[in-house]
Write a structure and sequence with these properties.
Helices cover 70% and strands 3% of the residues. The protein is mainly alpha-helical. The strands form two sheets. Strands 1-2 form a two-stranded antiparallel ribbon. The protein has a two-stranded antiparallel ribbon with strand order 3-4.
């Protein structure tokens, strides 16, 4: 039996793959949080509920309207993103001028309302969403079996993360977004509709969470509580990477997924807390995070 660092190769590669998949979700969700906080300074505690809404949107589109997975990849984030636009326009904007803690409390309350409502409607057992036929099966790599859908998740997450980073850091639109959050009065004097940019940015960050939910639907059970536990881990990832850092959210999300997966191989008892242990160490050494301003 082939061994890698003292463990069977199959177990090592299997957990490495699982860690990479989890890391892809962490990166995608952390990216949405980083976009919202970095550009709007909103601590969006309803992000996990919006991730869940993306999964349920895909499930309902299929079960009620017969709309398949490929269309749901675009429609579900759009629908949930539009809900985010309404939340920012009619709720968050009303408290934007006061302390940021009120935004956290508001979004936390929204998360509880959304999760409670869906629990009342659908129960807690969860529903199955089928893997699309084109992505069923797997590839035998010799040292492990790679499910095609899992590989698809990683590829999509990396492409989306790189695309968002490029848009924010390298395009004129991204420049407007960054400038609008730094000096909104000056940007409005130049004719830029800053409130609209803020609203669309929040909706975009929410849409990223919903996209993660659509990708997760065929892997995990679609249930009202699927985002609640994940949100705590994602917040830890964002803190490690640096609040508001786009690059930090992406790289740290992928890295922490791999660290968590390998911990399950070598010390399973610590796998549920290893990310939080890393967060504590990072905060002690670099309080702004690995990629945060002032780090």
């Amino acid at each position: 039996m082939t061994m890698i660092f003292g463990v069977p190769a199959a177990a090592f590669y299997g957990q490495l793959l699982l860690g990479l998949i989890n890391g892809a979700f962490y990166a995608l969700l952390s990216l949405g949080l980083a976009v919202i906080f970095g550009l709007l300074k909103i601590i969006n505690f309803s992000h996990g509920a919006q991730y869940m809404l993306g999964a349920f949107a895909a499930y309902l589109l299929l079960s009620v309207l017969g709309i398949n997975y490929w269309a749901a990849l675009f429609l579900a984030p759009l629908i949930v993103g539009l809900l985010g636009v309404l939340i920012e326009r009619y709720l968050l904007r009303r408290i934007a001028h006061i302390d940021h803690i009120y935004g956290l409390l508001l979004t936390f309350g929204l998360a509880l309302v959304i999760q409670g409502t869906f629990t009342n409607w659908f129960g807690v057992s969860g529903s199955r969403y089928p893997v699309p036929e084109l992505l069923q099966g797997g590839i035998n790599l010799g040292f492990m079996f790679l499910p095609i859908y899992r590989a698809w998740i990683v590829v999509v997450a990396l492409v989306v993360c790189f695309g968002v980073w490029f848009m924010i850091e390298k395009t004129k639109l991204g420049g407007y977004l960054r400038a609008g959050t730094e000096n909104s009065a000056l940007m409005q004097a130049f004719g830029v509709n800053v409130p609209l940019l803020v609203t669309l940015t929040y909706g975009f960050g929410v849409g990223l969470a919903a996209l993660g939910g659509v990708l997760a639907a065929p892997v995990y059970s679609v249930s009202p509580d699927m985002g609640s536990n994940l949100l705590i881990v994602v917040f830890a990832v964002v803190v490690i990477g640096g609040m508001g850092s786009i690059v930090g959210a992406i790289l740290t999300g992928l890295l922490m997924g791999i660290v968590e997966g390998l911990t399950k191989v070598y010390y399973p008892e610590a796998s549920n807390v290893v990310i939080f242990l890393v967060m504590i160490i990072v905060l002690l050494v670099r309080p702004a995070g690995l990629f945060g301003k002032g780090a």
